[in-house]
Design brief:
Blueprint lengths: L6 H16 L15 H16 L3 E4 L5 E5 L8 E7 L12 H16 L7 E7 L12 H6 L18 H7 L17 E9 L4 H5 L3 E7 L1 E10 L3 E2 L11 H18 L5 E3 L3 E4 L5 E2 L2 E10 L2 H21 L3 E10 L2 E2 L2 H13 L5 E5 L4 H5 L5 E6 L15 H21 L4
Parallel strand pairs: 3-4, 3-5, 5-16, 6-15
Antiparallel strand pairs: 1-2, 2-4, 6-14, 6-16, 7-12, 7-13, 8-11, 9-12, 10-12
The protein binds glyoxylic acid (GLV) and manganese (II) ion (MN) (2 copies).
């Protein structure tokens, strides 16, 4: 047995691994690691190596989730699931998702260093499709683990024109084996996910850690408008069917609806593809994303109805074809109270005040909660900045999060019934 590491040392080690993982990118000079990309494959080599070094058996499932498992000592034992995602947004920070995987690895290593024996198996999951950046899916890899993967996702086409099914096969995965990725919930203690807050509350309260109560529901859609492409010099203004001008009107309407909602409603158009995309051609077609979220389901559903209705009117007035396709629809998701309490006991045992807060961002815990007790520990984010390379958390806070995770694992171990 080696000497236990202090939270400061654990934070230093966590930061070291996060820095190394951030160097694995599809775009030199910035962190971009989207689902099934070459960088995601290289990150599997790196993280898989870390898992093996810590005595885990490493596998990759049919949707490219990297899994490191340490079986229990004896038969009849249950499994504790830990982790988060290692895909990123475009030009990301180093922490979103990656922290949950790295914190689990550092925590498990430390449990061993302290000579603690766990009465359950542990599996660390590093998901690949949480962000939903390359394909219009999101949370698809955690959905596979819960047996709720939707087959129609295999036919969606990514921003680069590649079909998800083909990208999976090119990555070495077999889509026919997706049902085998599901984990039987009867054997699972729960899912614990450590994540940066990505918002300003913990910083405002001057607290490094907080326990998540629930996660805002989210709907993600693809919106298309079809008009007529034409010569920018010859088609008179009154005869145009300009798809991009129609979208501009719709985007401002979406912003208005978002501002008028309750329960922290937010509505975003974040991606626009214009065709044919030439400066001297009237835009004939646009494809855009629509992302609507709220802390309660009714305000989100009401906003979606209003957006659809008003967008149809705008399209009709402008003579544009209009389609809206729902890709992701996840209701507001409460976290498991027993596991929230386990996290809270650990935070309090560190001599810290413990407050609970909802999450506006989406997380794999939303999909995991469909089948398993799930809980999240948030770590303070500098200025609440995320989905931005300026995302930052003090390594001392990272160390406290890892120490809290260690204590939570040991707390659950002490409560685990004998088989
Ligand atoms: C993931 O970061 C999301 O909330 O979109
Ligand atoms: Mn995340
Ligand atoms: Mn994210």
């Amino acid at each position: 047995m080696t000497a236990p590491r202090t939270p400061a040392e654990l934070g230093h080690e966590t930061q070291r691994l996060l820095d190394e993982l951030a160097r694995v990118t599809d775009e030199p000079g910035r962190v971009t690691r989207t689902y099934l990309s070459p960088a995601l494959a290289r990150s599997h080599d790196l993280v898989g190596g870390w898992m093996r070094d810590r005595g885990l058996e490493v596998t990759r499932d049919a949707v490219a989730t990297l899994r490191g498992r340490r079986p229990a000592d004896g038969p009849g034992r249950r499994t504790l699931l830990l982790g988060s995602h290692i895909d990123t947004v475009i030009d990301a920070g180093k922490l979103d998702g990656c922290l949950g995987v790295v914190a689990a690895l550092v925590a498990l290593e430390e449990v061993d260093r302290r000579g603690e024996k766990l009465p359950f198996a542990v599996e660390i999951l590093a998901f690949g499709d949480e962000e939903g950046v390359r394909f219009p899916t999101a949370l698809s890899s955690s959905s596979a683990v819960t047996g709720t993967y939707r087959r129609e996702w295999l036919d969606v086409v990514g921003a680069d024109g590649v079909r998800l099914r083909d990208a999976l096969v090119a990555f070495g995965c077999d889509p026919e084996k997706i049902p085998e990725a599901a984990i039987d919930p009867t054997d699972v203690i729960g899912w614990l996910e450590v994540h940066i807050e990505q918002g300003p509350l913990l910083e405002h309260w001057d607290l490094p850690l907080g326990v998540v109560t629930s996660i805002a529901g989210q709907t993600r859609m693809g919106l298309s408008l079809v008009g007529q492409a034409g010569h920018a010099g010859t088609v008179p203004m009154e005869l145009r069917r300009d798809a991009l001008a129609g979208l501009a009107e719709i985007i401002l309407m979406v912003e208005r609806v978002g501002r008028q909602g309750t329960a922290n409603l937010v509505a975003t158009v974040g991606r626009v593809a214009v065709s044919p995309g030439a400066g001297n051609t009237v835009p004939g077609r646009v494809d855009a994303s629509l992302d609507v979220r709220a802390g309660a389901d009714t305000p989100r559903l009401v906003a979606l109805d209003r957006i659809r209705h008003q967008a149809e009117r705008i399209a009709e007035k402008r003579g544009l074809g209009f389609t809206l396709e729902r890709h992701v629809d996840v209701p507001t998701c409460p976290m498991d109270e027993g596991l929230q309490d386990a996290f809270a006991r650990s935070v309090l045992s560190l001599g810290l005040d413990c407050r609970r807060l909802p999450s506006g961002a989406g997380h794999d815990a939303m999909a995991m909660a469909r089948r398993f007790p799930a809980a999240m520990l948030f770590v303070r984010s500098k200025a609440g900045i995320s989905h931005n390379p300026a995302e930052w958390t003090d390594p001392d806070d990272l160390g406290l999060a890892v120490e809290a995770l260690i204590r939570t694992i040991l707390d659950l171990a002490a409560r685990e019934p004998q088989p």
